[in-house]
Design brief:
globular, mainly alpha, Farnesyl Diphosphate Synthase, about 280 residues
């Protein structure tokens, strides 16, 4: 691939990420080139396989498309990539020592969504899901950030779970519309909720106790992520700290809103956004 072709591909990827409106975009901009470009490519990969899981296609079609991406990941590491996105991922994998197993774990996580509507998984299954769809992304990300130490992997482990659980608590209504319920069965049973049908659970009077318990788990992961960051390169962890601050603020807003108004979107205030932006150099 020529330099001009790679530049054009990376520009297209960056524009796609910017258009997606992800809250990660500003954090990515904390990074210098080419680390920023690598993060855009990682995000674009995640978005592509996530879209496969969410599309209204037969299961066999989704599985075939995800299997093709598994083969493409193998080609990334064999130097025989065929997809345009995979070609730039191949360059980034070599530059930043991105691991094949983390890309494959992300695909496996998307397959969990594609194969069935997840409803009230066990805590163990939820943890596995979070590891695949979030912490694996974190393990790729910390290498792109510039830290591949065991402490950086611990950041990925805990921050990925904290962010994904926050997403779950934020998106209860949206997930229910798709027939999904990520609230763990263990916590539901603890408060006497036997149902697994999403709308029945979301309108149960004990919903708040379940959400509070899951938010406590997320809070514990936020705390452990911050502790692990102290053992890492401070410069490399700037995007991770920024993402953690944004999502932790969202978790606090969710708690303040309460769980009976689960369909009501939460937004950070302008002063809060400005404070985060200034603290982490986002503007």
């Amino acid at each position: 691939m020529s330099t001009a072709d790679e530049a054009a591909l990376r520009t297209a990827v960056r524009e796609k990420v910017a258009a997606a409106g992800t809250s990660f975009y500003l954090a990515m901009r904390l990074l210098p080139e080419p680390r920023r470009a690598a993060m855009y490519a990682i995000y674009a990969f995640c978005r592509e396989v996530d879209d496969i899981a969410d599309e209204e296609n037969p299961l066999s079609v989704k599985q075939a498309m995800l299997d093709e991406w598994r083969r493409e990941v193998d080609r990334v590491y064999a130097g025989t990539s065929t997809k345009p996105l995979a070609r730039i991922l191949a360059a980034d994998a070599k530059t930043f020592d991105l691991r094949r197993e983390d890309f494959l774990a992300i695909i496996d996580g998307m397959a969990m969504d594609a194969e069935r509507d997840i409803r009230a998984p066990s805590l163990a299954e939820l943890d596995l899901y979070c590891d695949r769809v979030a912490s694996a992304v974190g393990r790729l990300s910390v290498r792109a950030f510039g830290d591949s130490s065991p402490s950086a992997d611990r950041v990925a482990h805990h921050l990925g779970r904290a962010l994904q659980i926050t997403n779950i608590l934020r998106d209860l209504a949206e997930d229910a519309e798709r027939g999904r319920l990520y609230l763990p069965r263990d916590l539901l049973v603890d408060v006497g909720i036997i149902a697994t049908e999403p709308n029945a659970v979301l309108h149960h009077p004990s919903l708040g106790a379940v959400c509070d318990a899951l938010a406590d788990i997320a809070e514990d992961h936020f705390v452990k992520a911050r502790l692990a960051m102290k053992q890492c390169s401070r410069r490399a962890m700037r995007p991770a700290r920024a993402m953690g601050a944004v999502y932790h603020a969202q978790l606090m807003r969710l708690r303040a809103r309460g769980w009976q108004r689960f369909a009501e979107p939460i937004k950070l205030s302008k002063p809060k956004k400005l404070w985060i932006a200034l603290r982490y150099g986002l503007i």
